[in-house]
Amino acid sequence: MSNKRVLMILAEDPFRDPEYFEPKKVLENAGFKVTTTSTATNAKGAEGADIKVDLLFKDVQAKDYDAIVFIGGVGSYQYHDDKKAHDLAKYAVSNKKVLGAICAAVGTVANAGVLKGVKATSFSGVADMVKAGGAIYTGEGVTVDGNIVTADGPKSARSFGDAISKLLSK
To answer: Between 3.40.50.300, 3.40.50.880, 1.10.1200.10, 3.30.499.10, what CATH number should domain 5-168 receive?
Structure first.
């Protein structure tokens, strides 16, 4: 059993259900402790999930986690220009932690300024934002560059979880 901790950040409403549940299952099965956070006590999935979060977003301390993972969906746009979200992404990168973002949530890390010169992918709807953030856009299902893992969406959710797990297992 690992003592490594993963923070998964959900939008209040809606996040993409498979982008949360698939990587979470992979990470927990690998022995990592997953903490779920959002800006409300409950987060709603686009496919009907209703998640009681473990910790409110305002109370998150970046130093408590080995990986910080932003989950996509329409609601994830709420973090695109959020200072705390940007600070979490910057902390992960500057402290050599694992940083993950999937689908539209890749826009948040791009806007945080941590993708300059980094290979990354995303949901096509935020590709221009990711490129504007200085990323080398790959268009792949999952892209790993150093300790940063990005993915395009639900169809890559399991592979996204696998890539994060592999980095945390090093």
So the answer is: 3.40.50.880
